[in-house]
Amino acid sequence: MSQTALAKFWHPIATSDEVTEQPARFALLDDNVVAFRDENGVAAFRDICIHRGAALSLGWVRDGTLVCPYHGWQYDRTGACVKMPSRPADAPIPATARAQAYRAQEKYGLVWVAVDEPADEIPLFPGDVYDLPEWKSFISYRRVWNTSAARAVENFMDFSHFPYVHNGLLGTEETAEIAPYTVEKLENGLHYWLEQEEPSDLYGAGGSQKVRYEYTLVVPFTIHLKKIEIGTGRETFITQFTQPRTSKTTELFVFIVRNHSHDQDDIEFGEFTNTIMEQDRPVVESQRPEELPDSLREELHIKVPDAASLLYRQRLASLAKVEVFGPYGA
Ligand code: FES
Ligand SMILES: [Fe+2]
User: Fold this and answer.
1) Which of 57, 226, 300, 320 is the most exposed place for a label (fewest CB within 10 A)?
2) For the packed helices 149-157 and 303-320, what is the interaxial angle rounded to 10 degrees?
3) 240-299, pLDDT tens digit by residue?
């Protein structure tokens, strides 16, 4: 979908500790962002100097300004050039001498950037659980995938691949049939759920524990999966925040947020999720085209199980104001 439509949303670009006083380059929406930190927090610009196009990320921070590495122009955190060292100190600086400043803020230990005026807030966790003391959070999985953000999100939304890609962990071939399910349309996304006996020991007690999977999608690229172990009170969010680096490369940040087992090592939960993600990766990286096809006619949608992903594609298309065809092949 068009990068213009995506520019109106907050996207993660890094973890907070990766944005320091030393400017650094981060990829976003087929372009580069320079981000740095001063006493006022994080700041982000398009990574290009208006003077001669040098990468500002090769510069440094001095006196609260970002210094271009080429001729030393200094930009304040609003992007205004406040010093051109080659000119007399009292010479006026043209108002057009600006870096393109983006909105930047920190949440969930990540740095988020919006290129244009954002159409929505940074996505919340359902129930705002992230900050509640009963819930423990960590980033479990992080990796760049050779695919588009939409393909990576659609994979996370999809459960009918469980018996094949995650056989014995999330599904089995004997239980491949999917019951009809309802997708609720939210103002900024979708919500749907199913229940199944999960064959894993970690959440499903080896198949004897029923698990309810509640999915909440926030457009364009956030997907929460809440795993509810029915009757036990144990609930776990597996949440993917997604950085659209380029139209064909995407960085995933997968959080695990749980209301149980605080004294158990995070690694036990992390390893399970990371195994799942690494099972998914080669399959998703094999999908062609890497981006979702522009037309819904180009792949075949089967109502059960593909209702959620079809609605996701329609929602993305309406964001991009692309004509939508459809709906189902069967
Ligand atoms: S290119 Fe940045 S100051 Fe010249
Ligand atoms: Fe998967």
Assistant:
1) 300
2) 150
3) 999 999 999 999 999 999 999 999 999 999 999 999 999 999 999 999 999 999 888 889
The minimum-distance atom of ligand 1 relative to the CA of 84 is: 3
Nearest Cα neighbor of 173 from 192, 185, 160 is 160
Residues with CB under 6 A from ligand 1: 49, 51-52, 54, 68, 70-71, 73
Domain at 126-320: CATH code = 3.90.380.10
Question: 234-255 pLDDT, tens per residue?
Answer: 999 999 999 999 999 999 999 9
pLDDT in tens, 123-145: 999 999 999 999 999 999 999 99
Compute the distance between CA of residue 191 and CA of residue 185 in angstroms, rounded to an integer: 6
Q: Which CATH architecture has domain 3-114?
A: 3-layer Sandwich (2.102)
Tally helices (H) and strands (E) across the chain.
6, 17
Structural domain spans, the chain: 3-114, 126-320
pTM as predicted: 0.95
Runs of H (alpha helix) within 95-225: 149-157, 162-165, 201-204
CA of 247 to the centre of ligand 2 (A): 21
